[in-house]
Amino acid sequence: MIDLYYWPTPNGHKITIFLEETGLDYKIVPVNIRKGEQFAPEFLKISPNNRMPAIIDHDGPGGKPFSLFESGAILLYLAEKTGKFMPSKTRARYNVVQWLMFQMAGVGPMFGQRGHFVRAAPEKIPYAIERYTNESRRLLNVIENRLAESAYLAGDYSIADMATYPWVVGTRREPEQLESRPNFKRWLDAIGARPAVKRGVAVMADLPPEPLDDQARSILYGTKQFERR
Q: pLDDT (tens digit, 9 = 90+) per residue, 124-145?
């Protein structure tokens, strides 16, 4: 059994998608990031960066519980544990790793910052919006070019696709971006049609919408982030 400390965000969806794809037994432990539950001492013991997702694998290495934070590390660990969605041969393996790192270092941060300045920032800062929008578009072009020569990011469907899809699926709200990137659209459609992906993104998707009020904004982006613990 794996305890998944989770909230329905792109990074959370990475892990639920993998768990659904592989059929591993898991239990959701909700971490309401709008209420500051990510700062609870018991959570910080397994995720010192006060970010979800995190896991506790009760059947970890040596048969002992093993905790892990950072979504990319969790995907690598679970792929090794199950022997799925991660090739064993070096060339193919590092092809997956490089595209996973592409998501972790590029797609996630740039799309995240764009989303923040477009939808969450208390004031509109044109330079920031333009900066992160341009970089997000550049990354979509990288994906489009890669998918022109490969069905999936690393050849076969892998943890690299699971990591990237939740961050870029919102591009569906901008049809003009899909029209100019047919290979990207084909990839989005193929992944979105997978039953396990549908189940993964549905986990806790029925939460009622909450406005981003001043209290939630302070918890997510304010000074609490810098408190010494």
A: 999 999 999 999 999 999 999 9
Please tell me the pTM assigned to this model: 0.94
- Tell me the C-alpha distance between 15 and 104, whole Å: 14
In tens, the pLDDT along 146-191 reads 999 999 999 999 999 999 999 999 999 999 999 999 999 999 999 9
Q: CA-to-CA distance for 129 and 137, rounded, in angstroms? A: 12
Q: Which CATH number applies to 2-84+201-226: 3.40.190.10, 3.40.30.10, 3.30.70.3270, 3.60.20.20? A: 3.40.30.10
| Cα–Cα distance, 46 to 27 (Å, whole number) | 16
Backbone angles phi, psi at 125, to 5 degrees: -115, 100
Number of residues in the chain: 229
